[in-house]
From TrEMBL:
Source organism (scientific name): marine metagenome
Keyword Nucleotide-binding on entry: no
Molecular functions per Gene Ontology: transmembrane transporter activity
Transmembrane segments: 42-60, 72-88, 94-117
InterPro entries for the chain: ABC_transp_permease
Subcellular location: Cell membrane
One GO CC term, this protein: plasma membrane
Membrane topology recorded in Swiss-Prot or TrEMBL: Multi-pass membrane protein
Official protein name in the record: ABC transporter permease
Length: 122
């Protein structure tokens, strides 16, 4: 139902812009799945979301509700990526493990705020 409403709304918007809705919807929904570069882009975009979903499944099985997983992922990516940018000239073999640790700490820090509020005020 949501996909149909999305396609319909998108078609109306493209018509209002004077564009052919069938061509636009083909480019959005079909073309990424029919070309090699499109499939690789879908995999690049879907990979992190799949990892987030797998991580959330463990929490949900434990009865812990977490709606901030994507934000935790982004905070970790910013922290780990920031370290890589800061040490861009370094050839140390410790940089990648340090990025992983800092990325983990970034995500944990982002998750700590609602966790603290829940344990303190719930």
């Amino acid at each position: 139902m949501a996909l149909v409403l999305t396609a319909f709304t998108g078609g109306v918007i493209f018509l209002a812009m004077g564009k052919d809705p069938s061509t636009a919807l083909y480019i959005y929904f079909v073309e990424p799945l029919t070309t090699t570069s499109g499939l690789s882009e879908v995999a690049v975009k879907a990979g992190p979301l799949i990892l987030i979903g797998i991580g959330l499944s463990f929490g949900f099985r434990a009865g812990i509700w977490n709606i901030g997983a994507e934000g935790q992922y982004i905070a970790g990516a910013i922290a780990g990526g920031g370290l890589a940018v800061y040490f861009h000239d370094s050839e140390s073999t410790l940089l990648l493990p340090a990025m992983l640790v800092l990325g983990t700490l970034g995500g944990m820090t982002w998750a700590a705020v609602p966790a603290l509020l829940k344990t303190r005020f719930n």
